[in-house]
Amino acid sequence: MIRPTSHAGSFYPRFKEQIIAMINQWIAGEKVAPDSEKALSLLVPHAGYIYSGACAAKGFHYISQQPFDSFVILHPSHQGIHFDYSVAPFEQYETPLGMLNQDEELFDLLTRDNPDIANQIRYHEMEHSMEVQLPFIKYFFPEAQICPVMIGRPYPQVAMELAQRLKSAINGTEKRVGIIVSSDLSHYYPATRAERMDSVFAEQFLTLDPEKLWHSIVSESCEACGIGGILTLLYYVKEIPEAKAKVIHYTHSGKVTGDNTQVVGYLSALVYR
What we know:
Blueprint: E1 2-3, H1 16-27, E2 39-44, H2 49-62, E3 70-76, E4 85-87, E5 92-93, E6 100-101, H3 104-111, H4 121-126, H5 128-131, H6 134-140, E7 145-151, H7 156-171, E8 177-182, E9 187-189, H8 191-207, H9 210-218, H10 227-237, E10 244-252, H11 254-257, E11 263-272
Parallel strand pairs: 1-5, 2-8, 3-7, 3-8
Antiparallel strand pairs: 2-11, 4-7, 5-6, 9-11, 10-11
Helix pairs in contact: 1-2, 7-10, 8-9, 9-10
């Protein structure tokens, strides 16, 4: 079963040459991670490329010299949240740069003993927060496989369960698996307030403390539409004492449009050991 593109021509260009030209422009002169930083996960935004594409490209470029075999993509559902999480069941994923293959081993490990996790197919087909990451993965890691996981209920108890399932699955394979977390930050505030809220998020994210970040979310000190995936990541790395985090790039939509009355925040950040 193939997942066709749903958002090529809207969230990002329809044609391969256009995407490659954009990415090449965005990453020109940008740094890559030193050998001392073994990447575990990348947090990247998922808005239209004209708004957040450069931010995401800088993040993917930063880890591009590391030998990943596969990526789990943790992303929110924008269609409904009446489920905990769902592992995408497709065998291949279409992108303008070519097909990406499903990591069947990871899929089996993540759905073992609970095949009903592989459901919500229509939501998977429609979801942009996963799809916009695929051209970046195909560009920077053309041979890598993927295993997308869509999160419905973005709550700590769901994140803790998924984190344990991820740990078991990733430990059960000999591949080097990275975790891509897809999330935008504050939505539709004046730029000064958005920057303040997003700085709170970044500060909490860098501590790698899921409880502190969740408290900041529920107290409305900051926002992240992909908080379920972010919490999952933080619970996952909680048992990796040497894990650290750093900001790669921050921006917001006002810096592109010139309209600072209502902006959306975007962050690329790395978790590494």
